[in-house]
Amino acid sequence: MRINWELPLPPTGFETELADGSAVRVRPIRPDDAPALKAAFEGLSDRSRYLRFFSYRKELGDQMLKDYTDIDHHLHRAWVVADPSEPSAVGTDEGLGIGVARLFATEQDPTVAEATVVVIDEYQRRGVGRLLLDLLASTAALWGVERIRFETLWENRGLRRLMGKIGATRNEALSDREVIVYEIPVKAESGDITAGALYEILRWAAADREEPGSDREEPGSDREDSGEAE
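RESULT FIELD:
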């Protein structure tokens, strides 16, 4: 699926179809999306919450919801996806909120942006993530981002191997030895390269994976990953 979008997206966004023919609407996030974002979080499985937030967080607090939705759309950009065929969990007329993606850079180094994608469990493996990752890659290239950064847990051995396979640069997070920071270069002339690599990450995240703590190496181990996804 390749979208000819107008970037940056207008406030109304656009409507498109997933591979299965389902219609979805994508638009920039707004402050009034906080209730829908809270409802979507509450609909995530414990495992999905753990993989996204690195803990079994039970709820998103008011300040966190504000930080996620009341953004500048300059250094911090975010988008929501809704399924208009399903009723909204909070009574809006746009339908059910099913996914969120965001890019966040800093004034100190706007050439590097952190990226996150979250899709509710019922809509994983249906192309929502790929849609959002294509949008992330295209926006990053237009925005002048040279590297996309994301984090994962040390215990996620299979994902670490996948990162080695696609050539991501790996660094341990300075503040937490349980977390690894990866970076993937953005090819300004072609968003497909980054989108393809990120899609492989998302596909792995959506698949059944090892449980926390299983078959793990200790942080700081000198043994290199094999470069093969499990």
